[in-house]
Amino acid sequence: MASNVDFRVRKASPVDASGIARVYVSSWRSTYGGLLPDAILNGMSEVRETLFWWTALCSQRSQTVTRVIEDQDGRIVGFISAGPERTGGVARRAEVYTLYLIDGYQRRGFGTKLMSAAAGSLHELGFGGLIVWVLAGNPARAFYERLGAQKVATRTIRMGGRAIQELAFAWPDLTFAHAAASGGPHAG
Ligand SMILES: CC(C)(COP(=O)(O)OP(=O)(O)OC[C@H]1O[C@@H](n2cnc3c(N)ncnc32)[C@H](O)[C@@H]1OP(=O)(O)O)[C@@H](O)C(=O)NCCC(=O)NCCS
Description:
single chain, alpha+beta, Aminopeptidase, 7-stranded mixed sheet, globular, binds coenzyme A
């Protein structure tokens, strides 16, 4: 298996759409089995997601940050997208919209690297805090807590006819990005 130093984080561009879509579909299926209705997971399509990400990346606003992590052959194994908080609840607060790694590349520090890169860019863009919504049963909540986030809200959404509970985790500022980059899990 390639060493962690062979992976790099970089800005995403429209040509990354299919690589991002592959990660997205694969990670949804491995993460959300049992948490979301099977019909939603089975109905996902890499082609549809590619089109979505192509369009999103072509029309990306300057306040949106999308980063990928790729191996030495340019194969994307994870990505993050973030930007202004969608509810506009708190002034200058950003939101992580999506953060996904392929199953076999989790728990190697890559999620921390992506969060750190995105938070650093959001800080430069003038954002002063960050929020992320997580499905209540998703163990990823421990990842955000490990990075210093606190649970701040809950909500119920409907997906595929089912009521799904979500939790919001938030950081009051973006300083955790520097701490994570220098001293976080798997650092060095
Ligand atoms: C959540 C995710 C992005 C985290 O990225 P990662 O690279 O796996 O996490 P890191 O290796 O940087 O983890 C840092 C620390 O966070 C905690 N952590 C991360 N994933 C965890 C999990 N599944 N369960 C419990 N703790 C976890 C651990 O303390 C970990 O340190 P350790 O591995 O030394 O114990 C990644 O696991 C993933 O893509 N999961 C599936 C998709 C998903 O749930 N995305 C989030 C949607 S809101």
